[in-house]
Amino acid sequence: MAAALLSPILEQLTRIVAQEVQEEVNLVVGVKKQVDKLKSNLLAIHSVLEDADRKQVKDEAVRDWVDKLKDVCYDMDDVLDEWSSAILRWKMGDAEENTHNQQKIWCSFLGSPCFCFNQVVRRRDIALKIKEVCEKLDEIAQEKAMYGFELYRATDELQRITSTSLVDESIVSGRDDEREAVVSKLLGESSQEAGDVDAISLVGLGGIGKTTLAQLAFNDAEVTAHFEKKIWVCVSDPFDEVRIAKAILEQLEGRAPDLVELQSLLQRVSESIKGKRFLLVLDDVWTENHRQWEQLKPSLTGSAPGSRILVTTRKHSVATMMGTDHRINIEKLSDEICRSIFNHVAFHKRSKDECERLTDIGGKIASKCKGLPLAAKVLGGLMQSKRTREEWERVLSSELWGLDEVDRDQVERGIFLPLLLSYYDLPSVVRRCFLYCAMFPKDYEMRKYELVKMWIAQGYLKETSGGDMEAVGEQYFQVLAARSFFQDFKTYDQEDIRFKMHDIVHDFAQYMTKNECLTVNVNNLGGTTMETSIERVRHLSMMLSNETSFPVSIHKAKGLRSLLIDTRDPSLGAALPDLFKQLTCIRLLNLSRSSIKEIPNEVGKLMHLRHLNLASCYQLESLPETMCDLCNLQSLDVTWCDSLKELPNAIGKLIKLRHLWVYGSGVAFIPKGIERITCLRTLDVFTVCGGGENESKAANLRELKNLNHIGGNLKIWNLRGGVEDASDAAEAQLKNKKRLRCLLLAFDYSRQNGILIEALRPPSDLENLTISRYGGLDLPNWMMALTRLQELKLCYCANLEVLPPLGRLPNLEGLVLRSLKVRRLDAGFLGIEKDANAIINEGEIARVTAFPKLKELEIWYLEEVEEWNGIGRRVGEEDATTTSISIMPQLRDLIIENCPLLRALPDYVLAAPLQELDISRCPILTNRYGEEEMGEDWQKISHIPNICFDDYGRKTELCVLIICFGVC
């Protein structure tokens, strides 16, 4: 990690020496000589740092030396960032006040006595800091000779991985017998008296598969059907009774409890499970303190017979303490099964010849797994990107296998070495990104897009020639996921991927970042560990209960760079001013979901701040103008801050801002000056101001003109109409926003919307389009040019009577039509009208496919539609001339709701491979296709596996039908 810290510092030193320091600071205190010496020492240390990084694992003295070096690197980075920020702040401030006269600004920079005095003072201060750091580094550079370091060449190049490298390893878990044993215990007769609950413990080494086994049992179909309630709680260390009780209640009741006292929570738990048969999984229990368990246990009695508690733990003593009725010891896997898991990952997508060439050496590497499936997955992920036999042999003969001395209190040795090997095989920049995750608590659900922004905030990602650090972060994430450093992936959409770290991997990351990353909670608050290490901590997560006052001891962490505070305590707001005064090195601040009502003015002192997350701070009412002094701010998230009505007026000063999220907040407009933030990558909502008191402060669409890096999702609200608005829209040039993937255009129902919508032409690569509350008569001409469009939603377009030939969109997979004035869905909608100009040679057949990739079709509230026309023949049937037509050949899901006049479904829909058909509040269709004894055309749909009419479900021969509801 230290190696990755040095590289950007060296680059920044070179840049500063070439610019301001050489010309200005040198005149103040002659610091150039110090800077040159500093750079020389850094280069000398950098050359041996890879060797030092590896030796520190078994040599405590080397580790201390590396830690000292890291501290100096952090200090140096802060000084250089302070220098750059001072220059940038000056430029931002004067540019704001004197944008009309750039020449005057430059003259002021050179000649103003006041400015020169202030700059001399500031630069003298920075120069003294540079000198102090230089002296520290000089001492460290001299010490390096004591350790006999060797030159060790490491690469910062990423090895190529396949896009399908995230394979499902669980299918070769080798735990079938244990799974059946666990399921049998869960479903069997209770050995306890009425009211008591049987406890089953899974005991085994870390990384042996306890959690995976518990998940398999938890999700078993018989188990799901047997229990009325299923609850999963990750306990970890420490055993927090309040948090556990809250987690149980949240899953029982479907919402977070508003209680804070343990006894109140336990009383509610007892009431919620009374008379119900439940399964409670307590995953990763460490505590041996029976008093903690005895507090929680009584609330779980009184349930229905057959209830179970399933515990996973690494300690036999824990199983005994919890009064286990059935203990299942999870043994190591056989070499054969470990080899199978390893091969499944390592040989994924390889050719047969390649597999045969590497199988023998792969078996030898797999034997290093010592029966641990996590080790097999980690080693398999390591080998996945290695193509030659020489690379495989190099791993097998690595000197790291010879490390016998490890800290067994921190990391279990069986999994330590495979993790260490895979870790050191990573480029140093990727290692640093992985180790950063040690700051999160165990079982913390991370989000990919936010983690990448956090890496950027810490300066871990180098900017590419295209300026796209986010793409680099995506690459790093994929590498770490392929190595099994991340797991439990959940994909909500292309942008929202969530995941966790295995407990053992988390232990490993914390071991490697000792003294740098810390998690504070109510149990270790004020404890010895925190008090002795807080001054050196760089990345801190605080998980505090509502009753816990904010600890002032945090102020000792002067060099803190990341701070994540998870608390609902309203007193946090009062603690923030002093916090901001003391912790001025912070680069990342996450206060999401807290109860603060305002951000204090002192936030402007956080000159290094890059990432500020205020999401879901529901009581937050205001942001100070001093926030616009944060010249380095890159990400600001105020999503779901529904009490927040405005952003700071001078937000245009934040010229380094890359991501601005405001969706779900009460923010009524984007302030003027947004046009200056030309590096902006994310702007999720742009609300057009509709006049009134905010008009003079609000940006109009024209200000989007030069923001061509905006990508991902963009929602434009409150679009009106008229020539002036159309002119603004044309000036915005949405078509040049090539990174845009999803666009929502929300209008105000005006018939003049037709003029405006033509000017809002998006880029041709758009993948998702929603048009809502559009008042025009016709859809825009540009719509049919969106050949990569995958999803289209047309909602509440009250005057829209005719649809364009949407069937011609070649990549459309999802279509939603809601509350339109359309009266019929015919050949024009399909886009298969005969082309009078088409020339077909004799004997040839013209093949036409309408909606070739459509999989999901939703039709809501088309209350005037009577006819949904077929074309007089079934799919694939040829007419008497020369045309073969296929319509919706991939349609899987069809929802039709509140179309009271619709008389029938067309033949091509009935012939499509439908898997789901939902018809609600369509009386004619229900009568026609309803149950067999009442619907004349029931047989036409009876082959569809899942059918639902109105508000009831039926069982067909194939499956039980489920009521489905959807919204546009």
TrEMBL record:
<protein>
    <submittedName>
        <fullName>Disease resistance protein RGA4 isoform X1</fullName>
    </submittedName>
</protein>
<feature type="domain" description="Disease resistance protein winged helix">
    <location>
        <begin position="439"/>
        <end position="509"/>
    </location>
</feature>
<dbReference type="InterPro" id="IPR041118">
    <property type="entry name" value="Rx_N"/>
</dbReference>
<keyword id="KW-0547">Nucleotide-binding</keyword>
<keyword id="KW-0067">ATP-binding</keyword>
<dbReference type="InterPro" id="IPR038005">
    <property type="entry name" value="RX-like_CC"/>
</dbReference>
<dbReference type="GO" id="GO:0043531">
    <property type="term" value="F:ADP binding"/>
</dbReference>
<dbReference type="InterPro" id="IPR058922">
    <property type="entry name" value="WHD_DRP"/>
</dbReference>
<dbReference type="InterPro" id="IPR042197">
    <property type="entry name" value="Apaf_helical"/>
</dbReference>
<dbReference type="Pfam" id="PF25019">
    <property type="entry name" value="LRR_R13L1-DRL21"/>
</dbReference>
<dbReference type="GO" id="GO:0005524">
    <property type="term" value="F:ATP binding"/>
</dbReference>
<dbReference type="Pfam" id="PF18052">
    <property type="entry name" value="Rx_N"/>
</dbReference>
<dbReference type="InterPro" id="IPR002182">
    <property type="entry name" value="NB-ARC"/>
</dbReference>
<keyword id="KW-0433">Leucine-rich repeat</keyword>
<dbReference type="Pfam" id="PF23559">
    <property type="entry name" value="WHD_DRP"/>
</dbReference>
<feature type="domain" description="Disease resistance N-terminal">
    <location>
        <begin position="6"/>
        <end position="98"/>
    </location>
</feature>
<keyword id="KW-0611">Plant defense</keyword>
<dbReference type="Pfam" id="PF00931">
    <property type="entry name" value="NB-ARC"/>
</dbReference>
<dbReference type="GO" id="GO:0006952">
    <property type="term" value="P:defense response"/>
</dbReference>
<dbReference type="GO" id="GO:0051707">
    <property type="term" value="P:response to other organism"/>
</dbReference>
<dbReference type="InterPro" id="IPR036388">
    <property type="entry name" value="WH-like_DNA-bd_sf"/>
</dbReference>
<feature type="domain" description="NB-ARC">
    <location>
        <begin position="180"/>
        <end position="351"/>
    </location>
</feature>
<feature type="domain" description="R13L1/DRL21-like LRR repeat region">
    <location>
        <begin position="701"/>
        <end position="819"/>
    </location>
</feature>
<keyword id="KW-0677">Repeat</keyword>
<dbReference type="InterPro" id="IPR027417">
    <property type="entry name" value="P-loop_NTPase"/>
</dbReference>
<dbReference type="InterPro" id="IPR032675">
    <property type="entry name" value="LRR_dom_sf"/>
</dbReference>
<dbReference type="InterPro" id="IPR056789">
    <property type="entry name" value="LRR_R13L1-DRL21"/>
</dbReference>
